[in-house]
Design goal:
This protein is of the alpha/beta class. Helices cover 36% and strands 13% of the residues. A 3-stranded parallel sheet has the order 2-1-3, covered by helices on one side. The protein has a two-stranded antiparallel ribbon with strand order 4-5. Helix 1 links the parallel strand 1 and strand 2. Helix 2 packs parallel to helix 3. GO terms for molecular function: 1-acylglycerol-3-phosphate O-acyltransferase activity.
Length: 150
């Protein structure tokens, strides 16, 4: 299944991976630049209207300690504006593969789980905080299950 990724602009400068992302039409933004974020959401909205899935990491960055951080609103605004269902995906076990602020790759056994679709039909922008927390709670609960099973 083809999809577009939303990532920070610097990722697209990484040899090979970043170049392929750029050529495939993945979306980038300048972290901390609100106008860049708004422009990126417009591009993502265009992809969604063309029935293309967009992968967004709602925390906006990886954490140093492996714990899930608060979510930013962009993905939820986008889903509600376009009335697009959300498909939460959780990944566990990648922390040692590429640590934050370290370029060296390590060994990792990762597990990915695709969760239940969360509909946004009928929601308004007033529902962004509740949707954001609902998705985050579902993801945290699933990661807790994955940790217990590991």
């Amino acid at each position: 299944m083809e999809m577009k990724y939303l990532s920070k602009e610097s990722i697209l400068r990484i040899p090979l991976v970043g170049w392929m992302m750029k050529m495939s039409g993945d979306v980038s933004l300048l972290r901390g630049d609100r106008s860049s974020g708004a422009a990126a959401l417009i591009v993502c909205e265009k992809w969604l209207k063309r029935k293309m899935s967009v992968m967004i990491f709602p925390e906006g960055t990886r954490s140093f300690d492996g714990e899930m951080r608060g979510f930013k609103d962009g993905a939820f605004i986008l889903a509600i504006r376009t009335q697009t269902p959300m498909l939460p995906v959780v990944v566990h076990g990648t922390r040692s593969a590429l640590r934050k602020s370290d370029w060296r790759m390590g060994d990792a056994k990762a597990e990915v789980r695709v969760l239940e679709i969360i509909e946004t039909t009928g929601m308004t922008l007033d529902d962004v905080p509740a949707l954001r927390e609902r998705v985050r709670d579902v993801m945290i609960a699933e990661i807790a299950k994955m940790r217990l099973a590991a």
